[in-house]
Amino acid sequence: MLTCDVIMLQAKKGKKGPGEKGKGAGKGAGRMNGHHQENGMENVMLFEVVRLGKSAMQSVVDDWIESYKHDRDVALLDLINFFIQCSGCKGVVTGEMFRNMQNSEIIRKMTEEFDEDSGDYPLTMAGPQWKKFKSSFCEFIGVLVRQCQYSIIYDEYMMDTVISLLTGLSDSQVRAFRHTSTLAAMKLMTALVNVALNLSINMDNTQRQYEAERNKMIGKRANDRLELLLQKRKELQENQDEIENMMNAIFKGVFVHRYRDAIAEIRAICIEEIGVWMKMYSDAFLNDSYLKYVGWTMHDKQGEVRLKCLTALQGLYHNRELNAKLELFTSRFKDRIVSMTLDKEYDVAVQAIKLLTLVLHSSDEVLTAEDCESVYHLVYSAHRPVAVAAGEFLFKKLFSHRDPEDDSMPKRRGRQSVNANLIKTAVFFFLESELHEHAAYLVDSMWDCAAEILKDWECMISLLLDEPLPGEEALTDRQETALIEIMLCTIRQAAECHPPVGRGTGKRVLTAKEKKTQLDDRTRMTELFAIALPALLAKYSVDAEKVTNLLQLPQFFDLEIYTTGRLEKHLDSLLRQIREIVEKHTDTDVLEACSKTYHALCNEEFTIFNRVDIARSQLLDEQVDKFNRLLEDFLQEGEDPDEDDAYQVLSTLKRITAFHNAHDLSKWDLFTSNYKLLNTGIENGDMPEQIVIHALQCTHYVILWSLAKVSEGTSKKEDMLTLRKQMRAFCLMCQRYLTSVNTAVKEQAFTILCDLLLIFSHQIISGGREALEPLVYTPEASLQSDLLNFILDHVFIDQDEDSNNGQQDDEASKIEALHKRRNLLAAYCKLIIYNVVEMNTGADIFKQYMRYYNDYGDIIKETMSKTRQIDKIQCAKTLILSLQQLFNEMLSDLGPSFDRSSSAFCGIKELARRFSLTFGLDQLKTREAIAMLHKDGIEFAFKEPNPQGEGHPPLNLAFLDILSEFSSKLMRQDKRTVHMYLERFMTFQMALQREDCWLPLISYRNSLQAGGDDDTMSVVSGISSRGSSVRSKKAKPATGKRKLPEGKTSNVTEVWMNREQSMQTPIMMPSPHLTSTIMREPKRLRPEESFFLQIWCLWSFNACSRRGTGLMEDDEEPIVEDVMMSSEGRIEDLNEGMDFDTMDIDLPPSKNRRERSELKPDFFDPASIMDESVRSTHFLGYDAFQR
């Protein structure tokens, strides 16, 4: 289409030619018109050829050169139109315009013909056809200059015209012109720099030839040759001067203005090309006059521009011969480069570190110790590319300097190897960084560049086991601990072949080469450590930290090596060492490491299983027998147990508990002994804290292992009954320990109770496990109350209250205590979400939302979201209940005559406003819930009459002021109904009152007034909805407007009518099967609810009679509240409702009659409510949605 348009345009313009007077003029014009018509075709074809990129660019340029030699005006006009079209402009420069108009006038004319409908142009268009356009465009310019460098560019016509055009276009207000012409000018400059470089080389060669010829003896000197060389040097000098003039014109006319253009892409083009010039022709461009532009632009606000600066500098610093010319720049901008290692754009930070690595490679003296340290700590960055770049810098600085003697000496092994000092250096660096828990990050950062050193496990073993050489300083205890931790991290990295947790998005697929390397590394590490590990454990058996790390090594072994390598005797040594460690240590981390090691070795796929299983059984037999024997003596001693016996019981119980975590110990019947121990602790009340905690944990493991065995389906019925009895008895025991005086014991009992209640809820029978239904356990009201009281007493406390024990002074311990409290709250909130406890218990949690927002806001908010997904109405009732509880607490503290401007009352109002925001913008989804919330709020406000008489407001009337925050969420129809229900509680005298004490009632009534300007009324915003109505009417009709599906539409009227007339319909929508554990019977409506229903249905019937069967067909559409207006400018308010299911924003067009007629059936129509088919369709649709 573009080709045809241009041809037709040129043809129409060509018809004017014959009308010109004069034979010569007519002939010239006709020829020009004819050429111009061809020019239009050639012009389009030139653009098309470059766009497609299928033809050889040199042949295209050669054809243009031939055309230029034939008629340079026509050819140059083709080139000008080529640049115009590459900018996306549909206009064409005619021959007449070219002859008679200035560049500025031509550009103004082209600007007028520019297509303003779209902001796209070839350089920014998406799609495969435009993917290679930029490279083809740049290649065309480069080839054009290269092919013209010997003649045409010096004719003082072609280059002057092109440079003048590009300079004018680069100053245009049109982005497409400016972007395209700047790119063309910069590429033109790059091509000219290359020509200038060739000229410089030719001039140097000519000068050398001239000097050589002139230095010859007079008899052998060729004067003709000297004259030719002089003439050639003069021509080259003239060409050089002309090229320099062209480059100065482009640099001063385009670069100096565009390197600070408003568009980041244009600035990036300039910086990228100046880097090419300085690298290509360093003698002319690598000086401070040009480097300063790169230095200044390193402060650019756009990351892509800063990135181009760094990549340009990398090309310069990579060449060591240029270092002398960069000294002043380095000293001036070094601090900026160092600061860019912390750039917010990770790509920029990576390139900044790589640039510093090149600077370091060129000279060790440039970067100070402080500069290097600022890069060192980045090896612990969570962003892996940054960490890897920092690892390369660290390796270059600390590990790449080797003595020349080391390379000449024969390779040694162990602690005498070359890597020994490098490994020590890594240990020293790790200790000095004071981030000991991040050894895995350090190893991963250096894995790509220093894998040879990090995988020299033989040297590490030698450093740990062998005696130091004469004159060598032995490793200290801290250094040995750090070396063992680094060694463990290297083994894990080699075995798993993926970054540690926190780096990377997940496991990637390994290549064949990487898989082979992984298998080779596992084989080598197993062969080395199968022999060395027993010796290491024997040497460090008393050091808990070292032993814990060493015991993790067998998890990464290739266990088949024990058999194929005939290493069984070393396996026996390992098992003996583990047994001794279990008997020697009581530290939980050490015991759990031993348990995991046994679990890793007890793999039935390998032949060593029997050998390890026997050793494990012998160890556990001894520990359980010892525990039973000690427990019997311990419980028989009476009221004052001996401390030594208590320590023996505790240490043995710790070992059994640690092993029971990973191994099934059901055959030893640990439930009886632990239950007896716990029961004695309850009766006597003097049981040591740690014994109770580990007894609770061990019993918990007994229950879980029994459940696992029962779930397999191979157990007997008696086993299930036994498990049911044990589980219920243990839950009762944990409930009794909730009242313990010891906080740690109560926390352990609470955590275990929450886990068990969740595991043995109704979800246990999902997934085809109906046979486990006898195990379902529903907590009694007393247990639910105890759990809630624990949360209120131990979670919602101030930080100062929790630091009375003297151990909460430092910041780290405070953070740890907060983390523990967050886990406790999350455990209880899961019970609410999965319907294990009554949802209304969440009111005590929700009311703390504002007070403890910083500590638990995210947990409480997510809980509200999940409960709303389960049951919107019950969630709304819970929210209003939490506000009522806060209101009652305020009354008890301040009395009935409190000031409504007090901080307590304003805090409750603010909480209500936050709750209101969580309902989102979709009023249809939350219609029933909001109506029920208002109903409960009205009843609460008039619940307590004033003892002074009817002339005084009810005690809770001020609650209506809080309830007003939810008025904006009501639809217009619902506002009228709620207002009628409000009048049910009002007397005639109340409606006439205007005193301050009655203001809550007045403001609430105003927020419910059913008029044209109240739909978006809010107490907070006070904004009328007329502005919103105007905006809605002016808005374009939505193309994908959501309609009410017949099977899923419900409203308050239908639910309430069904409650009143037919108790067979559930009160609430059925919850998802997995989250519903309690089946409740529908409750009877109170007289107030019945009256509210009667008003609602009466109004609905009258409205339908007036307007026809479709109520919403002729009524104005509900206007969605303008959240940005009602939030008083606070951006965080928008976040309150962004992650709930009600946030499907779909602003409907106002007065759209056609779509309104499709919103049927109308459930406000009594006929629809009583139609059984409609009701069955509604609930069947919901059930299908659940399925």
TrEMBL record:
Coiled coil spans: 196-249
One MF annotation (Gene Ontology) recorded for this entry: chromatin binding
Ranges of compositional bias, category Basic residues: 1031-1042
GO BP annotation list: cell division; chromosome segregation; sister chromatid cohesion
Domain of life: Eukaryota
GO CC terms, sorted: chromatin; chromosome, centromeric region; cohesin complex; nucleus
SUPFAM superfamilies from the UniProt entry: ARM repeat
Start and end residues of each SCD domain: 255-340
Broad class of where this protein is predominantly found: nucleus
Keyword Plastid appears in the UniProt entry: no
The protein, known as: Cohesin subunit SA
Organism: Cyprinus carpio carpio
